[in-house]
UniProtKB/TrEMBL annotation:
Active site positions, chain numbering: 49 (charge relay system), 131 (charge relay system), 155 (acyl-ester intermediate)
Name of the protein in its database record: Glutamyl-tRNA(Gln) amidotransferase subunit A, mitochondrial
Catalytic activity: L-glutamyl-tRNA(Gln) + L-glutamine + ATP + H2O = L-glutaminyl-tRNA(Gln) + L-glutamate + ADP + phosphate + H(+)
Domain Amidase: 35-471
Any GO MF annotation of the entry: ATP binding
Keyword Mitochondrion (UniProt): yes
Family in the record: Belongs to the amidase family. GatA subfamily.
Region of interest (Disordered), residue spans: 96-135
Known EC number: 6.3.5.7
Residue ranges, compositional bias (Low complexity): 125-135
Length: 480
């Protein structure tokens, strides 16, 4: 374990190095210089979000309730990176427990994360997106080669779009979540941020493997099945050197077409994809826009249950309080004091909303309805892909279906950091286009696709059938 003073000195060093550009995206910087290493990621600098356990550092999830928590082990994904030769550069700032879209739900002593993609130095600072805003900013400013984030409802893809980098939310269950602090387990995925699709693919190939320590991480047999299905599908796609996307059917969801000034899929990009051989097809996913309310009900419900473990039990019980002051306090009073004082306002809001959705009076009307919507949405996704779902062998895919969905990742560019109008409900609205793939457990990649008139980057999302990351990478290279 490193000493606190060592950590502080290293944090100051990186602060001095990057503060000329903008406040640092890191909550902790690794004081160890990278040693000699070998393996496919030898010498590569990779940052990790502060909800991913790393034995050498505190993992606080940007929460006061975990501010002195040092995990006793590293997450499986971190171990895989280190075994492959990578150097962990530090842990990055995030919205508390992953709840947010702008990396603004931070402990009071944190400096905000500014979006490094600013078109001109005099511009008022904009958000890097969230909740993995620190990871996206670290990649965009060039202080690491790649970064890990987590994506429950868009937290890797939205910051990727706002910062002009690539962001992958993999198929649910392909990357182990052992050692990741849970937000909403039925949705949480470890995601990857990098400057290019090729780097994202390299990191994904290291992280995607079975893990006995995570029972939701899929087995090798399911992975084999997905590969066989993809291989048999490849015969329908016969790339040539001039037309690498020949045979690929790209779906454009009607529901994501929002009028200007909202971000739209650039017509020049569509023409480019056609010139590479792809064909374009409008598709109807009627429940697409209902995904947002369903997501917030389900994610809050799961979060309210997950966060029950903090404040009085084995985690978050001591944290800096002078316990002597509270002699005679009952267990319940102590729990109330710790939770009221150390959870931030957004987390408290989610706990209340989630507890309400799960209460006896509301359960049928709210939680079950959201679950129903989720299965309807999954069915609708399965009815548009011509690749069958590898884990649901009974489902037959339409022969005239599509291979990949394409739409903007977000309907806007990065919001101003200090605007109160960007808070509250409009913050939730930013997830409109990312939550459907999360509810369906599908892989989705946000890839930079130029800039809007305001000079800020926009990202396009490619969503595929479960397990079709390779196909997504291939098409993304056509977008880059
Ligand atoms: N903004 C969404 C939320 O607050 C998504 C967050 C995430 O993917 N971690 O729930």
């Amino acid at each position: 374990m490193r000493s606190t003073c060592c950590r502080r000195a290293a944090a100051q060093t990186i602060a001095a190095r990057t503060s000329a550009i903008h406040p640092v995206p890191y909550s902790w910087v690794n004081p160890d210089a990278p040693g000699p290493s070998s393996g496919p990621l030898a010498g590569r600098a990779i940052a990790i979000k502060d909800n991913i356990s790393y034995i050498s550092s505190p993992t606080s999830c940007s929460s006061l309730i975990l501010q002195d928590y040092n995990p006793p082990y590293s997450a499986t994904c971190v171990e895989s990176l280190v075994e492959a030769g990578a150097h962990i550069t530090g842990q990055t700032k995030m919205d508390e427990f992953g709840m947010g879209s702008q990396t603004t739900h931070l402990p009071p002593h944190y400096t905000p994360v500014h979006n490094p993609a600013s078109p001109s130095p005099g511009e008022p600072p904009r958000s890097a997106g969230g909740s993995s805003g620190g990871s996206a900013a670290a990649v965009a400013e060039g202080s690491c080669w790649a970064a890990l984030g987590t994506d429950t409802g868009g937290s890797v893809r939205l910051p990727a779009s706002y910062c002009g980098v690539v962001g992958l939310k993999p198929s649910y269950g392909l990357i182990s979540r052992h050692g990741i602090v849970s937000y909403a387990d039925s949705l949480d995925c470890v995601g990857i941020l990098a400057k290019t699709t090729d780097i994202t693919r390299q990191v994904f190939s290291i992280l995607s493997h079975p893990d006995e320590k995570d029972m939701t991480c899929v087995s090798s047999s399911s992975r084999k099945l997905a590969n066989e299905i993809l291989d048999s599908h490849q015969s329908k796609i016969t790339p040539t050197s001039t037309h690498p996307l020949i045979g690929i059917r790209i779906g454009l969801p009607l529901q994501t077409h929002l009028p200007a000034p909202h971000v739209q899929t650039p017509p020049s990009l569509l023409e480019h994809l056609q010139s590479l051989g792809a064909t374009l097809h409008p598709v109807d996913i009627p429940s697409f826009k209902m995904a947002l309310p369903a997501y917030y009900v389900l994610a809050s419900a799961e979060a309210s249950s997950n966060l029950g473990r903090y404040g009085g039990g084995w985690v978050g019980s001591k944290i800096g309080d002078n316990e002597g002051e509270f002699v005679g306090e009952s267990g319940e009073e102590r729990r109330k004091r710790i939770r009221s004082g150390r959870f931030g306002p957004e987390v408290k809001k989610r706990i209340l909303a989630g507890t309400y959705a799960l209460s006896a009076d509301e359960f049928n009307n709210t939680y079950l309805k959201a679950l129903h919507l989720r299965s309807t949405l999954r069915r609708q996704f399965n009815s548009i892909f011509r690749i069958p779902h590898p884990l649901r062998p009974s489902h037959t895919a339409p022969t005239k279906g599509i291979d990949i969905l394409l739409h903007p990742t977000a309907f806007r560019t990065a919001p101003l950091l200090d605007s109160s109008t960007e808070r509250g409900q409009s913050e939730y609205l930013q997830d409109l286009l990312t939550v459907p793939a999360s509810l369906a457990g599908l892989p989705a990649l946000s890839v930079p696709a130029g800039k809007l008139n305001d000079g800020w980057p926009v990202g396009m999302s490619l969503t595929g059938q479960w397990g079709m990351e390779d196909l997504i990478f291939r098409i993304a290279e056509g977008v880059e």
